[in-house]
Amino acid sequence: MGKFRTTVHGKPMNHLALELMEHGLSAVEAVESVMKDNPEQDAGLIAVDMKGNVGVMNSQRVERRTDVAKIFKEDKTTGAKVAVLLNEIHPPQAVAEVAAG
């Protein structure tokens, strides 16, 4: 996210997600909450909490587009996780795959 996107609550999206996590929500819950309240932001959000939960989501506005790429991978053996959101104009899915690799 080049610019910090301000939420309907007047705070940057990433700050609000961190605040929600500080109040006990998991990364998944925090990201879902921020995105649910801000469906028309042109943004995606990734958060990781201390328990290793990874929240990754694009806004509804971004999801309506056909030129986005999203990857979430988890290695069941090691527990390693990677999340990539490419919300730029016409990002190839291959770039997300390479970044996640």
Write up this protein.
With 101 residues, the chain is of the alpha+beta class. 33% of the residues lie in helices and 22% in strands. The strands form two sheets. The chain has a two-stranded antiparallel ribbon with strand order 1-2. Strands 3-4 form a two-stranded antiparallel ribbon. Helix 1 crosses helix 2 (27-37). The chain starts with 12 loop residues before the first helix and ends with a helix. The mean pLDDT is 86.
Unreliable stretches? none
Sheet of most strands: 2 strands, antiparallel
Question: What helical percentage do the residues reach?
Answer: 25-40%
SS-based structural class? alpha+beta
